[in-house]
Structures are given as C-alpha cells and as structure tokens.
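Example 3.
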Amino acid sequence: MTTKLFGEPVQRREDPRLLTGQGRYLDDLGREALAAAFVRSPHAHARIRDIDVGPALDVEGLVAVYTWEDLPERVGRALPLLIPHPALTHGRTAYPLAREVVRHVGEPVVMVVATDRYAAEDACALIEVDYELRKPVVGLEEAVHGAQLVHEDVPGNVGAHLVQEVPAPGGHGAREAIEAAPHTLSFRLDIERSASMPLEGRGVYARWDGRDLRVYSSTQTSTSVRMAVAAALGLPLPQVEVIAPDVGGGFGVKIVHPWPEEVLVPWAAMTLGREVKWAEDRREHFISSAHERAQVQHVRVGFDDEGRVLGLDVSILHDHGAYTPYGIIVPIVTSTQLLGPYRVGAYRVEFTAVYTNTVQVTPYRGAGRPQGVFCMERTMDKIARHLGKDRTAVREANFIRPEEFPYDQGMIFQDGRPLIYDSGDYPEMLRMIKELIGWDSFERRPGRGIGIGCYVEGTGVGPYEGGHVQITSDGRVHVSTGLTSQGQGHETAFAQIAAAELGVPIERVSVVTGDTRRFAYAVGTFASRAAVVSGNAIALACRKVREKALRIAADALEADPADLDIADGLVHVAGTPSASIPLSTVAVLANPLRYAFDEEAAKATQFSGTASPDRPPVAEGEEPGLEGRDYYSPIRSTFAAGMHAAVVETDPDTAEIKVVRYAVVHDCGRLINPMIVEGQIHGGVAQGIGGALYERMVYDQHGQLVNASFMDFLMPYATEVPHVETDHLETPSPLNPLGIKGAGEAGVIPVSAVIASAVEDAEGFAVDRMPISPSELFEARRRNRG
Amino acid sequence: MKPPPFEYHAPRDLGAALRTLAEVDGKVLAGGQSLIPMLNMRLAAPAHLVDINRVGGLGASEVTPEGVRVGALARHAEVERAAAHPLLTRALKLVAHPVIRNRGTVVGSLVHADPAAELPAVLAVLGGSVRAARWDTAGGGPVLREVPAEEFFVGPMESALGPDELAVSAFFPALPEGSGAAFEEVSRRHGDYALAGVCAVVTVGADGAARARAACVGVGAGPVVVDLGELGPVRRAGWKAAAALVREATDPEEDIHATAAYRRHLVGVLAERALRNAAREGAAARGA
C-alpha cells in the first residue's frame, strides 16, 4: 500500500457512462421480451372470493394470465423468511400471488403477460376480483389494540417481542438505576414512515433456452437472487445465472429477495418458452415494495448532575407492515445502535414488532439507525435542557473515551456477533464539528437555532465477500466481486485498491460486479459493507496475484522475489530499474501454451525456450494464469461514526423551516476515495433532509396510501438540500487489512435528530415527532404558545 | 402506468379540431403536463385525444395597450420570456419547474382549473377572460364566445367549457395606470403547487387613493377573488385589516400537507405581504 492511488479523490470512472445516458438498466434490456403486469389489491384487507379473468381474454396481445391457483406447488409457496430470529415467534411472508387473503393495498393478485406493457395493463384493468372486505389494521395504536388481526393466527398482531438488558457494572438493571438516579425524565417520540425510492424501480427480465435460465434483476444481491430463484423453480444452481445490470439506486429495498416478481417472471419465461420482463412503475414501488422508519418510542432516563446517563429504558413499538421477509433486522438495529458513541450506565430496550395492513417494512438506508439515533439524541438534548447545560457538554460527559476501545456494549448486534466498537475518537470528533459549525460563537435568536446529532454505525457486516483478480497478457487487470453496485462508485474505489496493491496504472484496471457468471459467491451490497468486505477481499486477492507475479518474475529475472517491486505495471529489481519485466509478460509466462495465437502468446509456447525442461510447465502447487481469488470474512462489524450539526431558521409568520447550514464530521477509518465518501454523505444528508422535513407515507383509516405518487410524497429537490460542509477524521479499523469502515448509510442517519435539535433550539419548545412540516410547526406553536 | 387505449386525432387546422370535438367525446391535448400523467395513472380515460399542437395560429400572443391575449399553444416559458404583463410574468415564474414550463401552456393551465394553480388566480384578479370556440354544425363554421374569468372557473378541475369547446386564447387585461401587482405563495418545495398563495393588484389613483383586489390560490374550489375596494391614501392604507378581510373570505380545507387553520393563517400573512408589495409598486408607478 505505498502508491498514492489509495486515499486519492479519483474521479468516478462510471460517471461519464452513467451521466450521459450510456448506462444499461433493466428496462434497457430485452426489448423483444413479453411484458408482465400485475393486478394488485385495491383493498388493505380482504378475502378473495373469486377472480374472473374472462373479460381480459379478448385483449389483443394477451399471452397468459396467472392466479395463485395456476402456480405449481413449489412456485406458489410462501416466500422465504430470509432472516429468522428466535424472538420472531410469528414471522409471516407473502405468497408470490395472493392466496385467499390480501393484507395490504398493492399486494399482487394476478399476473398478466402480454406482448407489451400497454396490453398487459389493459388486461389487468379488465380482470374482476371479487373481494370480501375485512377491517384493516392501520397504525401502531390500532395494531397493539389487537381487536382486528392482520394474520388470523398471530394473536395481538405481535410478530416479535424482544427485551435486551445490559446491567450497570454494579449489576443494577436500568429500571433500578433510573429509580435511584438524581434526575429522571420520561417522554414519547414518534417517527413516521418513509421509503427507499430509488430512481429506478425494481425489475426482472428472464430468458430460458430450454436448459439454462438467465435472469437480469435490478437487485442489490444477484447471488442471493440466483439461489432463491433456483430454489423456487427447482433448478440446479449451475443452470441459473443472475446478472445485475446498471442499477439505478437501491437504498435497501432491492436487498429483499426474491421479490414475488423475481420468482414469477422467470417461471413464466420457462413456462411460456419466451423472454419475459417486468419493470416496476412508481405506483407499484409505493404500494408493492417496502417502507421503513415508523416507530413509537417510550423513553425513561435517569442521570446525574453532570448529565451522565445512569439508566436508560426504551420501549419501542415497531410497525412491520403486513409481512416480515427480512426478519426483525430493523428493530434490532434500532435497539443496538441507539447507544451511539455513549457509555450508558444500565440499558434496557424492549421492542414489539406488530403487523399492520400496510406495505411491509424492510431496511431502508440507515435501517433502523435513524430511529435509534433520534431517540438517543433527543434524550441528550432533554437532559441538557433539564440541567441547563450546553448540549455538547452533556454528550461529552457520556462519550466512550478513545482509550476504552475496543469497547463492548454488552449486546448482540444484527450480525449475531457481540456489539464491540473497534475504534473511534468521539471527543476529537465533537471538537471538530463544534469548530466546523461554530458552535461556541453561534448567535442564537428567536427563529434561529443550532442542532447537533451524533451516531455510531456498525458497518461491513459479514458473513463474507470475495474478489477475483486476473492479469491478462495485454497487461490489463480484471477485477470481479460478487456484490452489486447501485451507484456507489465501486468501479472506481475497487480499481483504486487493485491499482495500489498491484502497482499498475488505474486505467488498466476494470471492475465487474454483480454478475454470477464472473463471481458466484457473494452476499450483497447493503449495511455499508461493500468497501469493507469486498474491498478487503479484492486487496487480499491482489496480494496473492502480486506474490505469484513476483515469483514468476524472479525466475525470469534470476532475482530474489524479496528484491522485486512493481510500479507502473513493471516488475523490477529494487534499485535496478533496468532489470525489469512487464506484468503482461509475466502473465504470458504464467500460462504455458501450445499454440501461438498472437505474438505475446508465442513467448509461452513449447519451443520458445523460456521454460526449464527439467520441470513440468505448470509447477506442482501452481495454477496456470496470473490470477488469484480470495475472501474476506470479518470477525464482526467495524464501527464508523459521525457527528452532524445544522443551523436552521424558522419563519415567524409562515413557519417555514430553512436549513441555512449543515456540517458533517465523519469517520469511516481509512478513506479509499474522499470524493466518493463525500458524495455518499451528501446523498445521505439529502435523504435525511427528506425524512426530517418532507417525506411521510400517509395511510388513511382504510389502509389506502393516499400519497402514492411524487406529486404528494415529497422528496427534496436540489433546491431543498442545503450545502453540506464536511470534514474527515480517520481512525483506522484494526479489524481488516485496509483499516476501512463503511460509509454508505452514514449521511442519512442523524439528520432527523439534528433538525429536531435545531428547530427546538429556534422555537423553544420540544420537537419529538418527525418529520416536521411548516403546518405542523404552526400547530405546535399554537399548542405551546397559545 | 400506461394509458388505456384511446383514439388519437391530430387536426391541422382549427376547423378540423373543432369538428372533431363536436363529433367525438374527446379530450384536448396541448402541453400535456397534467393530462399525460392522468392518462398514465389511468385517472382519465378519454376515448379520443385531440392533439391541437399542429393547429396553426394558436401559438401567437398579442400585446395591445388593453392587455395580452395568449394563444392556446403559447408555452409558459414563451409567455414568461415575452414579459408582456408584469403580474403574469411573476406568476409564471412560480409555475412548477422550467422543464414543465417549456411544454405546459398558459391556456391549458386555465382550462385545467386546478384551484392551487397560479394562472387562474391571475386571470381572476385581473378580470380577464377565456375565448372559447366550437363548431356550429348547422352553420358549418366556428362560433366564438368570450367567457369572463368569474364564470370560467366552475369548481376544482372544472371550467365552463363545453365538451365540444376549445379554449383558443385567454385575455389578461393590462394593469390600470398607477398599479402595482404582487404574487406571494408558500409551497412545500420549490415549484410545488402552493399550500396557499395570494396575488394582489393595488391601483393608486391620481388622488393617491388606493384600490385593491386580491385572488387566493389553494384555499377554495377555485381562485377566491376579494375586491377590497377603496382603501384610502396608499401611504396610510390599513393593509393588515385588508389582509384580514382576504383571510376571512377563504374557507380552506385540510389535506395531508397542511391543516385548514394553517392555510387560512397563511392567506392572512401572504395577503398582507402581497398587498404591501403591490402598493409599493403602485405608489412608485403613480409617482406618489
């Protein structure tokens, strides 16, 4: 790791392609394919009495119509519960097409295949489904009340209940510690629903040639889709290949798999012997994919005169929507990451995950952390206000100190491993953010406030990723890894790692991701893990290749491998630049040939005289080719951290909220590419601003999502996103060879907490519910000031 | 999100367009900025679509001392650039985003009659009108009628146009001498439909007395016009009280973006801002 590429702000190599319309997304493929469309439930909760497809049969271009009853047993099974957990006692998943009961508006009921999407939608509009309506369960309170059930066999609508308790060092539980504390506070917090909303929706396109199935999916995990599709269709794994083309954003929603459509479209392609494609439209994305965030939290905290938390007791109600395909990862992440950069005397957290007749809840960028951070940071602000202390002083008093790492929070994290923070420097980070935003010199006045929020993010979860690196005889370096890309800049960051490890110009490195033909073993791109897990795997694979290259070059140069170095694609003897051999030649020598198909290849043929006649052309223990494969499997997550601060102005007349400054100090260990990290932070903050000030999924009492379009679901435009000032702190992770931590989700995590803190500061009354709109601020003023 | 089947008509002249509208149950396509999304979401399912974009003579705007007549195919962006009417120009800058303004038409927006849209309020506050044409089958020719703004906006998304009628132009009267105008609104995001908005025209007479008229958007079934009449000398007019009158004239509804109380409060705030700004401009124009 000596060349300068690692850590440099290299411009994203994928951008010229992606920004000039040269990207190839799912719907750019398969122009001749048949189109699928779905009849989706217009009701939140109903029994299907009858489906009459008759009226649709005359639609010109109609190819096939399928209901659940038309599916073979294996295809019609309930979708897998991907992450079981002992506390998820009543996990439930949907069927690919509704079987007897629909449990949310948007649930697929009938699949239509036609020559084009227009005809398919025309047919959908003519299919008559007779529903017997049931009373829907909407909202957490109604779910908990339990008078109506989403699933008849899930009493009280409770899917999961988990209590986690970390006693104080003296053995006191949180409740005892709170009772004994000099000061206590209790309050309720609310966070509303939002969703991932990638620019490109989901989509799947399948080709069956009679023996092999090729599936393209706009997914965050092509390897998992491959296994899921093979399992659902009963195909041997080698006969299924899955490719993620360019993917226009994921943000979590595309990690769930298989989606009903990912099972049904390939099955239809096999059944019909024709290519079939489905590209999700925006309305489908609103009502048929996944949402996140919605929680109600009841908090009790006990603290001393300095604001040190002696006991914290949090009770979380988590709205899981209609199904739990991704298990209870979101509330687990909330419960564990809530602790942030703090050491809490004793901690008790309890969550109840309940079903409602709404779209299912699965991770969305941040994945439960924004809720946890909102809880903890609101708590810190309330303690400060109660004690009349500066908000940063209270945080400082609670920080884990740099010398305390590794710090064990005493809980089990989302990867099933202990929640042990590997490294960090929170006091230094606080100093940096205060300086960046000008905390101590801030001029407070009515309608102008400053806020702060701190978080710790477990990143780079296992189980593993792999990397394959091949240097071909033209000197080019081909890197592949199994996880996918949705715009993160992997082509650049991974190339930087490979170029730095191998000593080659970055222009010679190409990167392929998410293609099971190139790399079959992978987990996926989520949980801020790609750079950490694949990045390290690629580095390890490069080191294998490097070692082999040096070994072969040493033979050719009659030198000791230890005396060799690689720079600019040339292997040379250290201190003797003239004694060198290009990697391209090493690649030729690594693969002894019988046939000379080009000039380079001729050097490796049997009469070229380069090989020793006393040894086999491929030495024992060696493999032909200059390539290597390796895996990185982290022992546990590595913990990144950040602190954000913002200045807001609230209009005294119109109650409009304007973010006038937004500052971020971020620590993701060693930076591969600071420009990409900053881009991730900016994008995350933009999403966070959406969650804090604009976005909410509004369900009416009938379970209708009333703002299922970009007209009424308000995502911030560029005009609503403030300029983001950033600074970096680098505390390397001791857990992985490159010392890096994840950065993908960071930006979004504390934004609601920060904005709430700032609005509260500007207005002088508590802000305990997010998002907050001008109308809500107006109403809050009326309540608080009369 | 694909539209249901429809028959597409692309007439080349006004007569053909009007004859088609007389014959079939059709919907007129001009800029398509509202209609196309409604078709794609299957919220509208007209059997016939009459695309007037190839009809000659509908794109021109005419500026006279009396006002601006805007043709049915004049795009927001063109009219905005022409800057022939200060209030219209100001309002157009508040209409959505440049990309939408490049395609959307001024007359189309009036016909769409969205109560939250800016242009109906401008037409209403100015006392303008829409010129409608239909084909007289008996007479074998087009018949025109001029519909005043107060009759044109019938209800939310509903205009006075008959199913066989085409709005061929709209007339925005020039501001009287000594007038100022303003448009103030609050929207959730830049370019969104306003939660509430108020446009105002204040005319300062030769004697220095101010007359004012306001129209509100987003707080009623259509533009809510309030004629405030004579308000005394412009320098001492009671704008706060006038704004309160505007506020009291509205009866907004609650929706997912704002409570009724907040909207009504906004009307008061925005009316005062609009009236004061218009008065300042009017006073300057009068040299008072």
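Residues 179 and 203 of chain B are 4 Å apart (CA to CA). Chain B has a mean pLDDT of 96.
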